[in-house]
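Task 17 of the worksheet. Students: predict the tertiary structure of the chain below and write it out as structure tokens. Keep your answer in the requested format; marks are given for formatting as well as content.
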Amino acid sequence: RDLHSFPTRRSSDLPPPAEKPASKSSSGAKPESLNKRTLFSFSVAKSDTINGRESGSSINYKATYLDLSRTNTKLGSILEDITGFSQSARMISNDSVKMKQLIDVEFKAGRDTTLFSDYKDKVLRGSARNNFIICQLGQALKFNLKETVRKQRHYELIVIDSVKLHRFISMNAGHSSFDADNFPDFEIVGYNLKNIAVNLEASMKTIITTRIADTNRYDLSLDISNIETANQTLEFHGLKLKAVNDEVELLTVDFY
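Model answer:
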């Protein structure tokens, strides 16, 4: 079942040949089973069932994954989460069926963060661990990823009133949630502005970028029926979608 699964250790950490290991090693160590000697753990497999729910993950303040667990989730959704490129607006693929395939993914970074340095700018700029995950997915599921740049009209999320915006800094420490199931209502709790732009882009199906470096997390409640109503509710929070004609980054997913 496993397509790509391996825990990695230094050779000096392996037990001496004459000694019997304390336990039988298995392919694809679960993140919770990692010990101090394990460098990282990664596994991906096709899902056994057609119904299921996504699992969890944790990221640091730079939106870099420390660990990732997804069960029975579409490949396109996982790539969207990791890269920040929405499927509906900025992801181009030569096989839409494979983008919808359901997979299980487990990743645990381990303690040595220098291990992924060669992946720093592999696909996404300055995102070593995220690049490592998507490159391993590509190797296992037979696809290549590439960023391309195109000049076109889109929207940029900007701050128009920082005092008003800071009134909506999240009071839910350690908690984040996102709900766009009741369109056009858009509720987001505990997300930074970069991730809010990503989720707005996916929900509104139009390209939305931001250059805001603010790492605070915010709670927003919006009406995203269209750009006009979105801006009315964004302005209440000190934000705005500004129309621009500039270069945007797109992600090409090419299966082979």
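Marker's comment: The chain has seven helices and twelve strands. The chain has a mean pLDDT of 80.
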